[in-house]
Amino acid sequence: QVQLVESGGGLVQAGGSLRLSCAASGRTFGSYAMGWFRQAPGKERELVARIRWSDGTTYYGDSVKGRFSISRDNAKNTMYLQMNSLKPEDTAVYYCALGGATLIYVASWGQGTQVTVSS
């Protein structure tokens, strides 16, 4: 079982930046993908970005393309989400996830971290 621990959420003004981190521990996951989902009140959870652990191939949701950047540090077993030009509509609980290549299947979830963007 892989455990995921997130950090880095908080309150920021519109146009600002935050960086989320997700540290993974447990069994090896060379064939997995990791990613970030978010869920705003009254809305469904959506995939924000994912990265394939083996070769770093990335995917971004349309709403964050050009503003968010996902990366990983293999040596630290840590994934990051750099969020720039934040908008109030980015306000949500952000969850780290690990699973299959497209993250349609998620094997492990983090506890979630709140990101609030004020206008």
Tell me what the structure shows.
- With 119 residues, this protein is mainly beta.
- The chain has strands spanning 3-7, 10-13, 18-25, 33-39, 46-52, 58-60, 68-73, 78-83, 92-99, 106-109, 113-118.
- The strands form two sheets. Strands 2, 4, 5, 6, 9, 10 and 11 form a seven-stranded mixed β-sheet that branches. Strands 1-3-8-7 form a four-stranded antiparallel β-sheet, with no helix packed on it.
- It is globular and about 40 Å long.
- The relative contact order is 0.32.
- The mean pLDDT is 93.
The chain-level mean pLDDT equals: 93
Give me the count of strands: 11
Order of helices and strands: EEEEEEEEEEE
Low-confidence stretches: none
Write the layout of secondary structure elements.
Blueprint: E1 3-7, E2 10-13, E3 18-25, E4 33-39, E5 46-52, E6 58-60, E7 68-73, E8 78-83, E9 92-99, E10 106-109, E11 113-118
Parallel strand pairs: 2-11
Antiparallel strand pairs: 1-3, 3-8, 4-5, 4-9, 5-6, 7-8, 9-10, 9-11
Summarize the entry for a quick read.
The protein is an all-beta fold. The protein contains no helices and eleven strands.
